[in-house]
Amino acid sequence: MKNRTSSKNHSASWTVGKAQIQSNGGYLRIALPKHLYPSKRKYLSLGLADTPENRTRAEVKLREIQQDIDYKEFDTSLEKYRPGHQNKVETPNTQSKELFEQLTLRQMLEDFETRYFRTRKKTRQSQRTFNHHQEVVIRAFKFEKNLDFYLSKKSIDKAIELTDAGTHLRKDIVASLRVFLKCFKFDYQFESGIAKGYEPQERKLPTDAEIEEGWHKIQVENFSHSRHRGNAESWGWIMAVIATYGLRPHEVLAINYEKSFHPPHYCLYIDEKLTEGTKTGSRVAYPLPLEWVDIFDIANPKTSYLEKKKDFFLAQLNKLSERLAERMRFKNVGFQPYDLRHRYAIRGRELGYQIDNLAKWMGHSLKEHTQTYQKYWDDDSHVIVYEKGLHGMQKSETIQNQNRSYRELEALLEKAKLRIAELEAELLNY
Fold first, then answer.
1. What span, in angstroms and rounded, lies between the C-alpha atoms of 384 and 377?
2. pLDDT (tens digit, 9 = 90+) per residue, 266-289?
3. Are 287 and 245 in contact (CB under 8 A)?
4. Whole-angstrom distance, CA of residue 262 vs CA of residue 266
5. Which of 41, 122, 174, 387 has the largest count of CB atoms under 10 Å?
6. What angle do CA 356, 361, 362 make, to 5 degrees?
7. What is the pLDDT of residues 236-270, one digit of tens each?
8. Would you say 48 and 10 are in contact if contact means Cβ atoms under 8 Å apart?
9. Which of 105-109, 294-298, 303-307, 360-364: highest mean pLDDT?
10. Residue 208 CB coordination number (10 Å)
11. Cα-Cα-Cα-Cα dihedral of 338, 342, 344, 347, to 10°?
């Protein structure tokens, strides 16, 4: 039992041979395994405030250190791991023309964030997207001994080929590599269709009646988890707003209440400043259908839970979606939070709204909107849109013909022809 360590004086239990991230005085540091320094535990100060974004940076450094520990290449002086350190690697031979600017992958990753945000606005959402790309790139080259190698076409080919074609992992790695290599203007040609073949799991969207039923279910108060007790009304309102306005779950935190929910249209205003940025910026959204504003009592916001957890959710925007999904699952609602947004898009077309308007209300480009929601169309939706269009044509015909449709006019014409024939017969009898 000599390897067992106590956690009495530390915030977390320790596993021999593993480095871990700690928060000390509001700043992050990496606690190094005891066996590296038998006389005294040592720490590597990162000089980063303890924020979600910096936690991701710290995890990159942690993986680098742990990899060196595992391969017995750990630099006990710690100089190799300090910010700004340039790793000493052998200069590649002149025969390799695929190498880029004599930068190792480690050096490229250190410069990745600076290059990424040269052409992008830095918000919480864009920072999360960058963090994801960085993690995927590191994971893609885990087959290498460490990150101190020069990127080449051969290594990129291998990173892609190690994933199965037609999988989400292949699609994810190709997407992140495209972004990463573009930032460095790295000359690599992705094969045509290299990321194709992946199809997300087919999802059956709820009907509007099922959404109303789910709204009643989510508000039932006999929920076992303590963090949800007393919050039923708030959860019902959150779900109703997402369903009625087609929001992404975390966008509920960006609602400008002073401007929103006013008659007669009860528009909702998303203000990206409230969450230090959203995926698609500020916008206005319209309720579909309008009667849900009254049915769900949306104009009287139930936000006690959101206010109580505001700081927590603003620090980690994805947590609101996770908590809502958890609530819906335990309440047997029968669908997921994003199904409400997808259903809004289809409902809008069924109600006769133009795709370009729906795309704006949902924060999409027209192309993205079409590609995203085309797969959710079923036969019933096509029939509804067709009948809606047919009804519109018939209505237009009625207006143009003094409130009579062409069918009605044709019937009147036939009656007129019969009456004329009768009159002509009568004249012949005279």
1. 11
2. 999 998 888 765 555 788 999 999
3. yes
4. 5
5. 174
6. 95
7. 999 999 999 999 898 999 999 999 999 999 999 99
8. no
9. 294-298
10. 14
11. -150
What pairing do the DSSP bridges indicate for beta strands 283-285 and 20-24? unpaired
Cα 202 vs. chain centroid, distance in angstroms?
18
Distance CA 265, CA 354 (A): 18
Quickly tell me which residue has 């959402």 as its tokens: 125
SS3 45: strand
Note if the pTM is more than 0.70.
no
Q: How many CA atoms lie within 13 A of 141 on its CB side?
A: 29
Q: Which two tokens stand for residue 91?
A: 């200069």
Contact 357, 342 (CB under 8 A): no
DSSP string, 60-111: HHHHHHHHHHHTT---TT-GGGSTTPPP--PPPPTT-----TT-BHHHHHHH
Amino acid at 125: Q
The DSSP result for 48-73, as a single string, is EES-HHHHHHHHHHHHHHHHHHHTT-
CA distance 143 to 145: 7
Within the chain, what is the greatest distance between any pair of CA atoms? 132
Name 220's Cβ contacts closer than 8 Å, sequence gap at least 6. 232, 331
Exposure string (b/e) for 269-294, b if CB count within 10 Å is 16 or more? bbbbebbebbbbeebebbbbeeebbe
322's CB contacts (< 8 A; 6+ apart) are: none
Identify the DSSP state of 205. Answer: P
Whether residue 244 contacts residue 208, with contact meaning beta carbons closer than 8 Å, is answered with: no
Q: Which amino acid is at 385?
A: V
For 306-328, the DSSP string reads: HHHTHHHHHHSTHHHHHHHHHHH
Number of CB atoms found within 10 A of residue 341's CB: 21
pLDDT of residue 381: 45
Angle 355-357-363 from CA coordinates, rounded to 5°: 100
Which of 40-44, 47-51, 258-262, 317-321 is modeled with the greatest confidence? 258-262
Q: Could you give the CA distance from residue 298 to residue 258 in angstroms, rounded to a whole number? A: 14
Q: Which two structure tokens, joined as six digits, stand for 273?
A: 């400043």
